[in-house]
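Sample 3 of the quickstart, ligand zinc ion:
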Amino acid sequence: MTFLRRQLPAFLAAVFCCSLACLYPAFASTARVSGIRFWNSEQYTRVAIDLDGEADFETRFLPASSDGKLPPRILIDLKGAVIHEDFLRKPVEVRNGLLKVVRAGRFKPGVVRVVIDLEKTCSYQSFTMVDPYRIIVDVDGQGIGDSCPVPPLGDPVPQPDTDTIHPQLRAPEPVVIPGSVPAAHPIPQPVPEPVPQDPAPQATSPQAAPKAVSQAPAPAAPGFRVMLDPGHGGKDPGAVGLNGLREKDVVLEIGRLVREKLQKEGGCEVRMTRDTDVFIPLEERTAMANKARSDLFVSLHINASNNRKAEGISTYVLSRAGSDRAALELAARENGVPVAKLTGVKFILDDLTLFGRKKDSMKLAKTVNDAIVRNLSGKYGQVHNLGLKQAPFYVLVGARMTAVLVESAFISNERDEKRLRERACLETIADSVVEAIRYYSRNGGIAPRVGI
Ligand SMILES: [Zn+2]
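Result:
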């Protein structure tokens, strides 16, 4: 009896908790919505929903209500999520001709509903990033057509209008709204050119350099726009060498050199996601490239490994899986997440077939990689060519243009670190990137954009 008296309250409490957890899975683990951010242009908006923990979610599109009172909208139901009272204020105003507002509230116990009110029917894609957990929704005003929204993989078909948020609770909180000002510069249209059947340079070794790349400068295809993305920055140093050289500083310098060289030659517009030592979230970098309607996105990095002897040059395009274990580990490190979490991420890579230019990206990646290998080998003797690879890099997800990520040395290798301190080495890498971009553009690599 004594035992029962002692244990019964605990037992009942446990039963009560289990019941609640069954009824409301949210009870077991709750994620709090902590912010809604967005970046937009007239035909593209990326919305990021920040949470302090992981939450399952479903998205679906609802057409405008038949009485015309509700616009077309995208619903994102976050299960096992809560939203703080302080967060329940007025909707996040976007009003860019594509989105009206983003609002959020408690839909039912344990479910937070975020509603993106649209000006018109749009296609969209959604995916998650972790550490910190955030749900990204890319809304496209021209994607597939004005009457055919494309739900993400696994979404239920559109349901009847149930966009209900309790009136008192309806209201989101714009915590951070960076980049909400439309692009300040006029956007020149790219010159559409057919992609040749075999535009990639044939060289795979430094000795077999493609003539076109090593020729004297020829005018690049006019009117295209390049977004250079020096990785890391600010609080994120990237990889650090044995003697203290930081990846963020090296790639910034390479980025500046590439910009300078491309601008000197003319024929294209060059932008950078950062040209100072500042931290920019990975999802914002891609959004910047999309917003600017860039034709090429080149993310600049320096590799690292626990094996201090590791060396070589590799260039990546986006894929769900890694080419090999090293590629996956690299992507995890660049994404700032453990490998286990990376493989569990719900990527929506059909995006690639709709918007991303994987084939083109592979051509550019190979061109860049071959040029760096060839030119560094010419300067330092044979360098190791790790080749063209694929991996799930966050910074490439959702890019609507030819997009590559370059790892142009190993900062963890003492010899490479020493070289990377030399201006001549950075110049050589920058020259190679410029050559590759020029070659790629001259050979029809700048194709008409789709989706924005
Ligand atoms: Zn990096």
